[in-house]
Amino acid sequence: MLRAFLAEHDAPCPICGYNLRGVMLDICPECECPIELGVSSSSSSLGAWLLALLSFAMPLSFDLLIGTMMTIGVIMSAGENPEGVFLMVSLVALTMVSVGMLWVLVARKRDWLRMARRKQWKLAWGFFVGVFVVHLLVGVGTFLIAR
Ligand SMILES: [Zn+2]
What we know:
Blueprint: H1 2-8, H2 47-76, H3 82-107, H4 109-114, H5 117-146
Zinc ion is lined by residues 13, 15-16, 18, 28, 30-31, 33.
């Protein structure tokens, strides 16, 4: 099938760009990398999905670490500073949301890839900006309660 395809079509080598038309081998004659015939889809690109995943994975370790420290602090001080309680509740909630969203993104990866690419990127950037803004609001909220 590879030979039949290359007999009639121009196709650049994916590694060196050499035109493989008419090549009768299963390696590129220019760079000797193995070549094969395949079916691909522009929807299978994982870029937007990875951005969505990173939006929740990046702050997760921070939220988990600081959230745990705040929980210990709140227990030790018997919940006397309201800003500590606010920060603890916020970070524990953010940790749970992040874990939940990571689980949904991994479990429903196929559904994600079926969406139009434009929609994938819109959603991924929406997650990224949304997570940032929510963290900013938690910071501002903690500062305002502490004053
Ligand atoms: Zn090549």
